[in-house]
């Protein structure tokens, strides 16, 4: 990929689910489609060939419904989990669920011309369906499902009114977290802590509340009250600092918190002009964050002042927006860093446009040199 250029991959259907494929050496992302047509949804595996800038793809069928959330397992690159919604014409009802699939192969780039011709002439392939989890009540809404970062058999499922921690091997819920009191504030997302692996943080209206899954207690272990002036949309834990996390919300803000004293953010920017749907820390260089917004932009932002270890010297980068990526024409619902290359990230908009971008070279050199 040339310096300053982005690569665009277009899908036929609308999209709002994106994840990086972990535990592999390739720059590879998975995309889930959101089509209302029966048996038309797909999972696209997109791999960037770094030397040539060529994109290689494989497409898999996802007939259980439109994909609202997608996660590749951090323990097995061939395993993925989708949160989906399907319509039953017989009952005229929509039912959400969580399904775990196994990809038949990790190969995306063809090895020779014969294999390339075969791949180009092939329809969407089948994934192996491992398990599907359906809510007890068909009307229950599922916001997302997240793999535990250390236990391959444990997942957290965020409903609009509870969190279920499920043992996949035993095929049962081992813990259900229901907020204390009669709160009617609904959950909108959640994520496991990267350092304290027994903690699961949820977005609840304008708040962030974290629960210890080792206990049955309905009281949060810690919380950031009023993290945003409007609805919280996303959060991401700092991969290197145990008590730091970033959040994004409908107030167009990117905030970074030290949740030990979460009354005020330690870093805050409002560079977007509309809702911020997604925020991600760079896994290797924590001062780099990328956000996606309904303003149709992905922003690369530096937060070096709160990630700088040597406080006697100036930070390597100045705080603020380093680059604005404006190749999208619709709301950017997801952003993700590559797990294989710390300088490449992907952004996905609702119109089915995936944009692969790189950190500008001069910022990369400032960090490395």
What structural class do helix, strand and pairing data support?
mainly beta
The average pLDDT is 91
- Largest beta-sheet characterization: 4 strands, antiparallel
Q: Please compute the radius of gyration using only Cα atoms.
A: 20 Å
Number of contiguous helices: 2
Number of strand segments: 28
Shape: globular
Distance from N terminus to C terminus (CA atoms, Å) equals 22 Å
Strand content: over 45%
Secondary-structure element order, N to C? EEEEEEEEHEEEEEEEEEEEEEEEEEEEEH
Q: Give unreliable regions as ranges.
A: none
Output the strand order for the largest sheet.
1-28-27-26
Share of residues in helices: under 10%
If you had to describe this structure to a student in words, what would you say it looks like?
Pfam families: Beta-prop_EIPR1, WD40. Belongs to the WD repeat EIPR1 family. Residues 194-296 form the EIPR1-like beta-propeller domain. Keywords: Repeat, WD repeat. This protein is mainly β. It has a domain at 7-140. It is 4% helix and 46% strand. The protein contains two helices and 28 strands. It has a four-stranded antiparallel β-sheet with strand order 1-28-27-26, with no helix packed on it. Strands 2-3-4-5 form a four-stranded antiparallel β-sheet, with no helix packed on it. The chain has a four-stranded antiparallel β-sheet with strand order 6-7-8-9, with no helix packed on it. β23 and β24 form a beta hairpin. The longest helix is centred in the N-terminal third of the chain and has 8 residues, at 113-120.
């Amino acid at each position: 990929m040339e310096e300053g250029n982005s690569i665009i991959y277009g899908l036929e259907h609308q999209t709002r689910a994106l994840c990086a494929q972990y535990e592999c050496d390739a720059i590879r992302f998975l995309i889930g489609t959101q089509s209302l047509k029966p048996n038309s949804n797909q999972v696209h595996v997109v791999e960037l060939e770094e030397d040539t800038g060529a994109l290689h793809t494989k497409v898999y069928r996802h007939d259980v419904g439109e994909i609202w959330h997608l996660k590749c397992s951090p323990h097995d690159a061939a395993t993925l989990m989708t949160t989906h919604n399907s319509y039953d014409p017989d009952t005229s009802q929509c039912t959400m669920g969580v399904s775990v699939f196994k990809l038949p192969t990790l190969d995306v780039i063809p090895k020779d011309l014969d294999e390339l011709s075969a791949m180009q002439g092939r329809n969407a392939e089948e994934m192996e369906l491992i398990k599907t989890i359906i809510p007890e009540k068909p009307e229950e809404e599922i916001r997302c499902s997240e793999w535990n970062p250390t236990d391959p058999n444990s997942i957290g499922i965020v409903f609009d009114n509870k969190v279920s921690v499920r043992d996949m091997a035993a095929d049962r819920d081992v813990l259900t977290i229901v907020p204390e009191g009669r709160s009617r504030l609904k959950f909108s997302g959640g994520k496991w802590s990267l350092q304290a692996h027994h903690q699961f943080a949820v977005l609840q209206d304008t708040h962030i509340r974290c629960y210890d899954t080792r206990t049955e207690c309905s009281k949060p272990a810690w919380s950031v009250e009023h993290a945003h002036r409007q609805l919280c949309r996303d959060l991401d834990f700092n991969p290197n600092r145990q008590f730091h996390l970033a959040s994004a919300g409908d107030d167009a803000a990117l905030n970074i918190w030290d949740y030990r004293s979460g009354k005020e953010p330690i870093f805050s920017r409002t560079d977007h002009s509309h809702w911020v749907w997604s925020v991600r820390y760079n896994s290797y260089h924590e001062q780099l964050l990328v956000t996606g917004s309904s303003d149709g932009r992905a922003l690369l932002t530096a937060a070096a002042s709160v990630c700088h270890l040597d406080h006697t010297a100036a930070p390597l980068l100045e705080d603020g927006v380093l680059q604005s990526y404006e190749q999208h024409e619709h709301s950017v619902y997801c952003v993700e860093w590559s797990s294989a290359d710390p300088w490449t990230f992907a952004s996905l908009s609702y119109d089915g446009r995936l944009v692969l971008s790189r950190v500008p070279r001069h910022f990369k050199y400032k960090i490395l040199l």
